[in-house]
Write the structure tokens for this entry.
Amino acid sequence: MNQNAVVVTNLEKRFGRFVAVNRVSFEVARGEVFGFLGPNGAGKSTTIRMLCGILAPSGGRGTVAGFDVRTQPEQIKANIGYMSQKFSLYQDLTVEENIDFFSGIYRLPREKKRERKDWVIEMAGLSGHRHSLAAVLSGGWKQRLALGCAILHEPPIIFLDEPTSGVDPISRRQFWDLIYDLSGRGVTVFVTTHYMDEAEYCNRLGLIYRGELIALGTPHELKVELATTTEAAGNAVVSDAARQSPPTPSALPTLEDVFVARIEAHDRMEQPEAEVQR
């Protein structure tokens, strides 16, 4: 059996003359927590939309859960969970009504529906709020409820698009505990985030910038690579921020140093005539 849940080779998406995703290649192992990072407009959401079967690629190829992103988008949708930064909930429905709605979308059998509803409510800590409107829930409760609705059908892969945006630190930590629990049970988690502390929680990271994948590896590997390159090049590629506060000899750069340095290096090498959507 293929041990990779996601395989992408030279995946590309063009909108007219602009390239939103430029020949991106990577693999995500089954049960892995894969972090996908990049500034706004870098191509994160476009890539996710292609992987979720929502947007057809302009070039390259890829598979998700063994299904082809070009020819089998409906099979992909049936085998993934998706949660956006807006929590993907209907604010004018109650907790139970939201769960019932998504149960219908995923066509859960009647005998399974009650079991999964009870699991979501317990997982989200909403036992006393079954009949509360989603609109009145706190950010942390909405977050956990949205995650529960996204995985009602127990998909092998879930895509989380900035799921902790605007949520307090304690709720973020609790949410990541849930992610680790899912990963421990073999679920593949593909997550985008702007928080560097959350990036540290991922097994591996991919950094996309101006449509190109400019870094790929574990958090530790990326830090060691920057430290080694910086030492060899006499600080030629380290970021301005890192130069102002260089790490001690025994310390590694931060992930923020890594990403800023990679982006600065990419900008120095970029051809001025390149047409890339920002």
About this structure: The mean pLDDT is 88. The chain has ten helices and ten strands.
